[in-house]
Structures are given as structure tokens and as C-alpha cells.
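Input:
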Amino acid sequence: MSYLLLGLALYLAPALDAAVMPHFQLAGTSPQLMLLTGLVWIAVYRGRKAYVGAALAGLVADISGTGRLGIGFGLLTGLALMMQVLGRRFPLDRPLKQFAVVSAGTAAGVLLISCLGPTPPFAEIEWPQLARWSAITGMYTAVVAWPLLAAVHRRRRHTFS
Amino acid sequence: MFERRPVRRFSGSTLAACALTALATLALANAPAPLVARLRQCQRQCVLPVQTLLASAVQAPRSPATFAESEQMARDLKAIDERRTEVTAAVEAALARLDDEQAADPSQAQRLLVPTAIEARIIGRQGRSFFAHTVDLDVGLADAVLPGAWVLNPSLPLVDQGQSSGVERGHLVLAGRRVWGQVREVGTHVSTVQKVTAAGYRDLVQLAGQSAEGPRPGARGVLEGVGEPLCRVRLVPSTEPVEAGDLVLSAGGDELLPTPLVYGRIVRAERPRGGLHWDLWMEPAATDDPDHVTVVRVSLNAARLAQREAVAPSSDDPIAEARR
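Output:
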């Protein structure tokens, strides 16, 4: 069931990114739903499931984007592995921590895509401006992800209590 | 006394996943371009129906207009259309007068090089699709439709004029009297255009400030497209007077063009602390994609050549004369 939801999200995210999100721009940025899908998956699941979902999301993000292939895949699977290794020391059991991961992950993704793409769209923009833009995008994406993360957290608490 | 702490080792599966991730990332980064293009095309075709649906849903009016409002809107639209027709006619008449005056100007007849306009039409999605199929079927070369598939850069607009019309790389492409871009790649019958806003676009420009007497020529700089809606104007000394609203005109014509062409208007002007140059951003005048464009090329003045032949008829090659 969860993989079905992931597939649906990965199908809808590029369409929403292209058709709807430009209408919700904030300071010239809009939420990155593809990265959001992968990052929420990593924040919610553990182990093999997290890795497989992150790999799928990264692959679809790369294909639906215009930059170089492999950036989204490497970022999301790398993050899933890092969360796996740091799992005990840094458990993502609170929505606030998950918010931080989604925010930082999106900012890192946007920065990477901007810098490593074949034709960097922000080649002429200075680093501070690019960093600010990435940070705003990360925060905005995390704000959009917040209700989703809170709902998952609440559902789990009810399930285990 | 000393307790040995257990050393945490990564499990075999984690290491395997790391290796797999690194290998897969490298493989994806080095994937052949045609395969990537095909994958992206498939993905876009799959998503397109939903995307179209979402786009139409978002753009639809949130509250349906009443009948009276609809009628009012229709009347307003009609009035705007009439006004636009009047203004267009007035502008065309003024431009025709200007052209007549320039044609009658004796100094124009004495020029060796004159600009020539080539009317061109933008090739849309259907046309591109036709060309793509033609290349796929490998009949493009035989029919001389396309000299090379490299002309079909999918990210650049395509116009239906090429080498056969005298179009060359670097020629300015105008939408009306506003600069829309430059010819980037030239085929026999088609050319690609690099728009002013495209990353990598460069041209020499001159600023023109507003004054009571009309536009006053200002400093020169280099216009650069950065792939965003706004373009950057570089190398304008911070000692020059510049303000938002100044016009940006083409300066590369070097007196070849009778009137400077408009690139756009400065919308942001910042003087960096301690910087030698202004930090300027320009909004292009030609923002929409037009149906028709004009390619400006330089050619020999036929009137002057005709005068020379009338005075001393000879079999000299005009090109050779121009070179002399």
C-alpha cells in the first residue's frame, strides 16, 4: 500500500511541480515536490524500504528534471543510507527533526542541481544569493511537508498506543 | 580498569548499499544522451494528461462570472480590441512615414552597407515534430530539408529562414522593433535563435536615460542573458549616472542601423559598496514569443552599386570592390 502511494506521489509530483506550484511562489521560489516526496519517505521509513523508496524517488526526480542524471538519485539514496547509519544516534521520531531533514535535504538538493547541472541556471548569481534561494526553497518545502509528517506521526502514535 | 569500547562496524548490507549507490550514481551521470532524452520524453508523455488537467483547473476562474459580468467583460474586450486596432494602425503609419523619410534621406543612398530585413516565422511544436520525424527517417539530407540534425537544438526557438536567405550566425532577430534574440545555429532553411534571456547571450548595449528633451545617450555595457526573466547588464562604470527606468539600446550596430533597437528597460540598479561597476538588471522589451520575427542582416547598398555602374559600367565584382 505504501509503495502504491509512493508511485502515485511520484506520478503526480512532476505534474504539480510544473502546473500548480508556480502559482504558489514565495520570494521567487516554489516547493520542490519531487524532493519532498523522497525526503518524507526517508524521514518516515527505515531500512531497506527507505533505501528503495529513496532510489525510486531520486530516479524519477532526475528523469523529470532537466539537469544531469544521478544528482537526485545520489542525494536521496545517500541521505537514506546516512539516516540508516545514524539511525540510533539521530532517530527521526519527532516531526520537528523530520522537518529539519526535509528542509536541509531540499536545500542541499537545489544547491547541487544548480551547481552540477549541464547548464547551471544560476551560473551568474553569486553564492550568497544562491545559498539564500536554496535555503528559502528548503524551508518552504518543509513547511508544505509539515502537515504530512504530523499526520504520519499522529497515526503511528495511535497505532502503537 | 580500562574498558574496551565495542567498535561499531558497518554491516555488510550497508556497505553493499553504499557501493551500489555510488555505482548507480556514476552510471546515471554518464548515461548516453539519446537514452536520457528518450526517457525524459516518455516520462513527459505519461505525465502530460494530468499536467494539462491540473493547469486548466488552476487557470480556471474560481468564481463563475454572472451573465451580466460576462456581458460587461465581452464589451470591455471588444473596446480593448478596437483600441488596439487603432493604436496598431497609428504605429504602422508612423513606422511607414519613418521608413519613407529614411529612404528619402540622401545620406542613406551613399552608404555602402545597409541593413536588410528578412521576415521569418517561428516554427512551433508541430513543425518541430515534423523535422524530428524527418531526421529520424533519414530523408532530411536527401531532400536537403536539413543540412544537419544539430540545427534541431530542442531548447532553442526555430525560425523558418536559413542560409538560403542569407541568414548567418550572430544576426539580430527582432520582434517588431525590439530585439528578441540572435541567430545561434544556421541550417539551409531553418535557424535556431538564442533569446535575449537565454544563458550565454551577450551583446554590446548602450543605456539611455530619460530627460525632458527625450532619451539621452548614456554609458555602454555588456548585456548578458542568465536564463532568467531578467538579463544582466555588466561593465557599466559605477561613476556613470544610471537609474531604474533607463532604456537599454543595442550598440553593436555601429551606425549601420538608422535607429537604435530597444532591448529593454533597467528595473534594478544597485551600486555595490566599493565596486567599480553597477549591478544592473534589465527587463526585456520582447517578453512574449511572437509568431513572426525579423532577422536583420547587413548587405551591400544596391542603390550605391547601381550609381557606380551607371557612371562607369564594368564587370567588376561588387564583393571585390567592397573588399578594396
